[in-house]
Design goal:
By secondary structure, this protein is an alpha/beta fold. It is about 45% helix and about 10% strand. The protein binds coproporphyrinogen III. Coproporphyrinogen III binds near residues 41 and 169.
């Protein structure tokens, strides 16, 4: 996509809902749009109240509730975009893998994918089972109309494969890397199958009203540059292209990716997510100014006093220097215990900032 910014921004053309999508396309906007990774979640009382009566997966599978969680968080914060409430791991189920979220432990996949036969057994023909996510998006889209940007999402092939192979979170990605190095044909088949399912899943989301798709490659920073090129890039690039052909911009996000940014950008993704470990302008230089960037406040800064928080927010905005194509966000998700009023304060700081 990467359309060249040509349309001049006048106050009339910037309805609130277009600010986010325009920034993804590097078109001029009146101010940078702002939203937060994990903006709906346990740090919010409203979410904790719903979680008393439903598991995470139950919330995801009931479009009425998933839509309510999505809408409540976006409205409470006053952000420019709403990310659909869902989870990265939902596509595992139609592929034939059972998983659950164990309290304090994160996700657990009961029979991880370790052998060629495990990969062969994975199904790719049931993405339509994920229609509950599309239904939730339809409800969110009907609620907001063009007032907010609506973000659909999925995992990136590497990150999703790592959950399937490790069976949960991991420190060293030992089984994942063993499959990459020792059984490259199974690894390739696994990523191909994941891309097929995620393409169909993203299509459901776009047809339901998602304006933008974010691809979460949260754990790709575990790879060195050569391994990223050899084992992860092609599948990510294929997914990015498949989604862009649906007519929506793609945000490609990862953590600890300072050494991978140029390569991630060459997937062709419209927007690259930056973590907080380098100044935004350095990250943007590495990405290239023919892409938009999203980021990059350290989520733990939300626990700092407001004057410190404001310094960090302003530093990021100054680093972006008003260039079209900056979406203000965190470098990774909001964690439980984060003071909601500080998240709201960041929205105000971004709105009120003038260079
Ligand atoms: O508001 C939003 O941002 C949308 C909601 C959302 C969730 N998961 C809900 C959720 C999104 C975008 C995700 C994506 C996701 N899921 C990622 C990529 C984002 C990232 O942080 O890099 C990953 C790696 C997952 C997998 C996952 N889901 C893990 C590792 C965990 C456990 C984390 C923990 O703190 O327990 C989850 C659970 C999860 N997904 C929660 C939420 C709100 C918290 C669990 C709960 O409510 O019990």
């Amino acid at each position: 996509m990467n359309s060249i910014p040509t349309v001049a921004a006048t106050p009339e053309t910037i309805v609130d809902g277009s600010r986010f999508v325009r920034a993804c396309l590097r078109q001029p906007v009146d101010r940078p749009p702002v939203w937060f990774l994990r903006q709906a979640g346990r740090y919010m009382q409203e979410y904790r109240d719903i979680r008393k009566h439903h598991t995470l997966v139950e919330i995801c599978k009931q479009p009425e509730i998933a839509a309510e969680v999505t809408i409540t968080a976006a409205e409470k914060l006053g952000v420019d975009a709403a990310i659909i409430f869902a989870d990265l791991l939902l596509p595992l189920e139609p592929m034939g893998l059972d998983f659950e979220f164990q309290a304090g432990e994160g996700p657990v996949v009961h029979h991880p994918v370790r052998t060629a036969d495990d990969v062969k057994a994975l199904r790719t023909d049931r993405a339509a089972d994920l229609a509950y996510v599309a239904k939730a998006i339809e409800k969110v889209a009907a609620h907001f109309r063009d007032k907010l940007g609506i973000i659909g999402f999925c995992g990136a092939p590497f990150t999703l494969a790592s959950y399937m192979i490790e069976g949960g979170g991991s420190r060293n990605y030992l089984y994942t890397k063993q499959m990459m190095y020792n059984d490259p044909s199974s690894w390739t088949m696994l990523l191909d199958k994941i891309v097929d399912v995620l393409t169909a899943y993203c299509r459901l989301q776009v047809e339901a009203g998602a304006d933008v798709i974010q691809i979460f490659d949260s754990w790709v920073g575990a790879l060195g540059l050569t391994d990223y090129r050899e084992y992860a890039f092609a599948a990510s690039q294929r997914l990015v292209k498949n989604v862009q052909e649906m007519g929506v911009p793609v945000i490609y996000f990862g953590v600890e990716t300072a050494g991978l940014l140029a390569e991630m950008a060459s997937t062709g993704a419209d927007v690259i997510g930056l973590d907080w470990r380098q100044p935004l302008s350095e990250g943007w230089n590495a990405v290239g100014h023919n892409h938009a960037v999203q980021g990059n406040l350290d989520p733990i800064t939300l626990f700092a006093p407001l004057d410190v928080l404001e310094k960090r927010v302003h530093e990021i905005l100054r680093s972006a220097n008003g260039r079209p194509g900056h979406i203000f966000n965190l470098g990774h998700g909001i964690i439980p215990g984060t003071p909601v009023e500080n998240v709201q304060a960041v929205v105000r700081m971004v709105r009120d900032f003038r260079l």
